[in-house]
Amino acid sequence: MSHPDKKTSDPRKRKEEKKALKGKRKAARSKARSHAGAGMLRQMMGGSSNADRSRKAHEEKVAGQKRARAAARDISSFIGYDAIYRDGIAQVEEGLFSQTVEFADISYQSARKESQQNIFTVLSSLYNYFGADSSVQLTIANVPIPDEEIGNKRFFPESDQDTARYAREYNQILNDKMREGVSNLTRHRYLTYMVGAADVDEAVPKLARIKGDVTDTLSRIRCEAHALDGAERLRAIQSQLRPRSPFTFSWDKISPRSNVRTKDLIAPALIDFKPDGRSDIFKVDKTYGCVLSIRTFGSMLEDHYLANIIDLPMPLSVNLHIQPIAQSDALALVKRQLDWMDKEIIDEQMSAMKKGYDYTILPPELRYSKEEAEELLDFLRNKNERLFVYTGLVYAYADTVEELERQVEQIISVGQGNSLGIEPLYYRQRQALNSVLPLGLNHIDVTRYLTTGQIAMQMPFASLELNQEGGGYYGQSKQSGNLVICNRKKLASPMGFVCGKPGSGKSFSVKREITNTVLAYPDDEIIIFDPAGEYGNLIEALGGVNVRLAPDADTALNPFDLTDVEGRADAAQLAFKIDAFLALSSAMMAESSEGLPEADKSIITRCVEAAYARHAEDGATPTLTDFHGILLQQPEGEARDIALRYERYVTGALSFFNRQSNIGFANRITNIDLHDLSTNMRVFGMLTALETVRNRMYANFERGVTTWLYIDEVQSLFGHPTIIDYFAKFWAEGRKFNLICTGISQNTSHMLTHERARTMVLNSDFCLLHKQAAQDLASWAEMLSLSAAEKEYIDESIKAGEGLLVAGGARVPIRDDFPKGLLYDLFNTKPEEIAQLKRAKAFNDNARKGA
After folding, report:
1. What is the Cα Rg of the chain in Å?
2. Contact at 8 Å (CB) between 621 and 657?
3. Half-sphere exposure of 56 (CA within 13 A, CB side)
4. Mapping DSSP to helix (H, G, I), strand (E, B) and coil, where does residue 754 land?
5. 3-state secondary structure string across 252-277
6. Which of 310, 322, 408, 733 is 20 to 30 A from 818, comparing alpha carbons?
């Protein structure tokens, strides 16, 4: 055949040569689109510098290492890494090192458009952060809960004799509810990044810098992230390599003398890549697996397609391998593609002119390709987009071939419903298995080019599941039925609120959380402010004590008490005590909306300091008698007015706060019953109790104990500006001293009108919202930027016990059909059911007396 650039007189040969040339061009374009390595890209660019040759040599070396893995005859050599260190860094191949960060779930699918756009922007910046000398693997894995745990998990210890029977019943209830879950899966999200380095010492600072930047970036969307250590990373690898096997790895089993490697302890006994002669599945021990590839996308890439796959009720993992391309190389690639298209357009136009056709009419495919390439060039130049080599893989596994085939069909069907072409990888399952392990290296050359936006649109956040180790039960997910387990100690700011209309299940939820706290944290101290007297039965059942504050009670709290912790009775504590007395004065005075007059503040401050100074030598604690007497000695008329208002608390029936405290808090669970106090007196009592809690908080902090405080009818502390200022300072200080405070309210719209109250809510990572009145719903929607879907979870249409749990960046719709039993009777607040229980108890008591 003559050279294609030379003309020939034979029309038939000329036509054949033209057809052959067109075929070569088409093949070249196809090769350019699908080739995985940047080395081929540079070869297309014509690069021949020393740097290019060095990169090409390195890429050929890595390709050789991949081939060696695929051809390995023993399982340990096949597993795709050389070593994993205790800090979690893995040497994947010679000269390649990776690290894995696990990040938490956040609410995306039901969030407002503005929140979704912010998450998209942050993820775009995260992917753009990685350079061409690194690679990234995103893994979302649905890992099944071991069969032996389902129905047998121990959520709460049963060792305390006071609470053993309640812990036993609670464990049984939660195990029964585990079986109601759609999938009984735990979901993990990993980001694995890989860099080149001569040795591990050179790799450590590179990976540490990336880890810090990745965690900081994810924190911008309130997504917590941490790097996996060696054992955690091996667990993540084994969960994909041997999904049904228990994790028994221990560093103690690694010994230089025994020549045992980490991979020897997680390797399966058998891997068969041709079970029954098939090329599209494999068998690991007794489990069958299949890796599928995401081949094609629809014309519009939606943000929910990945979520639809992840939400399938089956064990699987989705893996996205992302290889950044240097911006200069990406621009050159697109320009070269445009040059090819321009050449094809010229050829098409010349052919049309020769045949007498309209040369302006181009084939639709060529016209659309040209428009897409021009748009891509504009994105790369002007819109902060980058180009990546992308591979999408879906890994499914099951106990039988038939079950696996059903799962694969379901995955393909969901993909088709989202305009995705998903196909099994025939004859490449060996390479595919290594590619789905969270190691950062892609062994599969089924790739395509995607931009930053196209990758960031593939959201790793599906229906939110919250299952934090060591936490308490808050209900079941309305979407999946899985248990919602939250550990408030793991939140950045564990302070929070529980709010809902009367009859919404608010009190039931609070009692359930108090029980969670008592059972889950047996060393912590729990204090409840009980203005309605409804927690007494629960506290007695859990082995706690009820402290009644009332005119006819023997118990007393002195608002002048200071902590006896060494180093705390200083000027700072005196300043807080002055704030407390300003708040106490506000509780009894008819003040204006602006708060206490400045003159009153000065007088109260002077007299509080004088009361402590009076007993500086004898070491006694001042009382309200001291304070009242000092007020009467002041020259200002305002002082006498303040003294007159304090008089009823100093003498007479209401003087029970004018005594030395006799509550020792020897029991770790204390309920302060305030229901016998009048409205004004109740606020005074709450503020006095808060000062007592402050002293307990200091003491508990010194001995490493967390203090839990539950304040019912918390809205009463937002009635006066001075009280709000005091409570806001108390709230802020408490976070520094291991205080976890929960405000409980049924009317929140008035509370949220105060700026300090709004700040307290915004600085708290925990909110449990039940059914809200219209006005309260509007306040919460504005405060928390609730989407339309999230507002439906707390509107008037929901049932008692349903609601929305906000825990950090997680927003989970919940429901709770708690079964009747010992715990239900303790939690229940329905008047008719309580009356029925009392009648039954009275009947049984009378029957016993008659016997």
Report:
1. 34
2. no
3. 14
4. coil
5. HHCCCCCCCCHHHHHCCCCEECCHHH
6. 310
The CA-based angle 110-112-117, given to 5 degrees, is 110
Average confidence (pLDDT) over 41-60: 56
Pick from 715, 706, 812, 704: which is nearest to 766 by CA? 812
Instruction: Please say whether the dihedral angle defined by the alpha carbons of residues 339, 340, 346 and 352, taken in this order, is positive or negative.
Output: negative
Beta bridge partner(s), residue 226: 102
Nearest to 97 by CA among 443, 436, 440, 444: 440
Lowest mean pLDDT among 5-9, 132-136, 432-436: 5-9
Give the separation between CA 188 and CA 19, rounded to whole angstroms. Answer: 52
Q: What is the mean pLDDT of the chain?
A: 85
Gap between the Cα atoms of 219 and 469, Å rounded: 21
In one letter, which amino acid is 32? A
Q: Look at 112-116, 173-177, 717-721 and tell me which has the smallest mean pLDDT.
A: 717-721
Listed residue (240, 178, 246, 233) closest to 207, CA to CA: 233
The residues with which 669 forms a beta bridge, in sequence order, are 526
Position 2 pLDDT exceeds 60: no
SS3 letters across 644-674: HHHHHHHCCCCHHHCCCCCCCCCCCEEEEEC
DSSP for residue 766: E
In 442-524, beta strands by DSSP E: 448-451, 472-477, 483-486, 496-499
User: 357-386 pLDDT, tens per residue?
Assistant: 766 676 676 667 777 777 777 777 877 788
321/326 Cα distance (integer angstroms): 16
Distances (CA, A) of 369 to 338, 344, 373, 529: 9, 11, 6, 69
- Give residue 604's pLDDT: 92
How many angstroms separate the CA atoms of 484 and 466, rounded?
5
Angle at 221 between CA 218 and CA 224, to 5 degrees: 50
Averaged pLDDT for residues 99-117? 88
- Name the pLDDT band for 7 (thresholds 50, 70, 90): very low
Q: Tell me the whole-structure pTM to 2 decimals.
A: 0.79
- The three-point CA angle 755-761-765 to 5° equals 155
Query: Which residues have C-beta within 8 Å of that of residue 446, sequence separation ≥ 6?
Result: 34, 36, 293, 295, 391, 425, 428
Give CA angle at 324 (318, 325), nearest 5°.
140
Non-local CB neighbours of 708 within 8 Å, separated by 6+ positions? 517, 521, 524, 525, 526, 527, 739, 740, 741, 742
Q: How far, in Å, CA of 501 to CA of 677, rounded?
A: 23
b/e map 469-486, b = 16+ CB within 10 Å? eebbbbbbbbbbbbbbbb
The number of residues in the chain equals 851
Taking the C-alpha atoms of residue 625 and residue 607, their distance in angstroms, rounded to an integer, is: 12
What is the rounded distance in angstroms from the CA atom of residue 710 to the CA atom of residue 688?
15
The whole-number average pLDDT for the span 699-722 is 90
**Token match 């054992």: residue?**
231
Strand 387-398 with 287-296, pairing: antiparallel
Q: Which residues face 743 on adjacent strands?
A: 497, 711
Specify whether the CB–CB gap between 814 and 477 falls below 8 A.
yes
The Cα 377–Cα 671 span in angstroms is 68
Q: Coil, strand or helix: which one is 813? A: strand
Residues 6+ away with beta carbon under 8 Å from 380: 327, 330, 331, 334, 386, 387, 451
pLDDT digits (tens, 9 = 90+) for 477-525: 988 888 999 999 999 899 999 999 988 999 999 999 999 999 999 999 9
Which of 519, 506, 507, 472 has its CA nearest to residue 491? 472
pLDDT at 757: 85
Q: Which helix (H) or strand (E) holds 818?
A: none
